[in-house]
Amino acid sequence: MTTATSTTARDRLSTTGVWYFTDGMSSGEAAEAAGRIESLGYSTLWLPDTVGRDPFAHIAWLASQTTTLQYATGIANIFHRHPGPMKQVANTLAEQTGGRFVLGLGVSHGPMVAGLRGLDYSKPLTKMRDYLAAMETQPYRGIAPEDEPLVLLAALGPKMLELSASAADGAHPYWTTPEHTAMAREALGPDALLCVEQKVVFTTDADAARAAGNQQIDRYAALPNYRNNWIRLGFSDDEIEQRDHRFVDAVVVWGDEDRVRAGVQAHYDAGADHVCVQPVNPDMSADIDWNALELLAPTD
């Protein structure tokens, strides 16, 4: 399938995208989902790098089954890959997809790097700075993409946000709020890209929405980078531990069409260039909530 397109990656990031795990789908089902996301008018599909599919191999497959949808890693863990092979795979995907690839990089979390993989997690900010510099000097002798792939950093705190603007093309904050988006925009300045993830639950049942939100929070609350950022945003340890409504309702957008749309728009109003929505199913299953994606579709 021909995948070349003249639209730039930066242009595509001016339209809302989708962030989603596809690990529970077969490769065929994932391709069908990507095609449906593309048909709804979303610009970009963000895929994680945890303990499931390799995101780069998966993106190569999905991109071969679609024509306009852009793909981004959200995020590729720098501790797991040497900067040379990271540059190779990013350039390869950018060239093969006609520019439909964005490289999201991050330092992940101590429990994922030191705990799970047994790797050194000391000085993650320094590691990221040195990693980006090393990528610049690594050789690449394949056919170069027409444009180098954009590089975005998973950034929450002020120092990583500063690095996102000075040494990369921008930032990809995850599990944040519009208040954080406003702070991030100020830290990044006007030119760097700000691509924000937002979980949405399309239901007016408060108990169901918060239960679904809590299920998501349970998977991340022990990871220190997210918890520290929530505390920076003004939530207490007790609010996080007890899943206080003030906390849950701030980090997970739920409600009817107007409320969900307003929650996503709040990030744009605060300075985001791109919001990638993560549709959380109100029945707490791992299935994509297509109702939410149809509701928020850019073509609507």
Keywords:
300 residues; TIM Barrel; eight-stranded parallel barrel; 14 helices; 14% strand
Report a brief summary of the structure.
The chain is α/β, with parallel strands linked by helices.
What is the topology?
Blueprint: H1 9-12, E1 17-19, H2 27-39, E2 44-47, H3 55-64, E3 70-73, E4 76-77, H4 83-96, E5 101-106, H5 110-117, H6 124-137, E6 150-153, H7 158-167, E7 170-171, H8 178-188, E8 193-201, H9 206-220, H10 224-232, H11 237-242, H12 245-251, E9 252-254, H13 257-269, E10 274-279, H14 290-296
Parallel strand pairs: 1-2, 1-10, 2-3, 3-5, 4-5, 5-6, 6-7, 7-8, 8-9, 8-10
Estimate what percentage of residues fall within beta strands.
5-15%
Integer average pLDDT: 96
Major β-sheet annotation = 8 strands, parallel, barrel
How many domains make up the coordinates? 1
* Strand order in space, largest sheet: 1-2-3-5-6-7-8-10
Radius of gyration: 18 Å
In terms of per-residue confidence, which ranges show pLDDT below 50 for 5 or more consecutive residues?
none
Shape: globular
Please trace the helix and strand order, writing H or E for each element: HEHEHEEHEHHEHEHEHHHHEHEH
The class by helix and strand makeup works out as: alpha/beta
The portion of residues assigned to helices is 40-55%
Specify the CATH homologous superfamily: Luciferase-like domain
* Distance, first to last CA: 27 Å
CATH architecture: Alpha-Beta Barrel
Classified by CATH, the class is Alpha Beta
How many alpha or pi helices? 14
Number of strands: 10
CATH topology: TIM Barrel
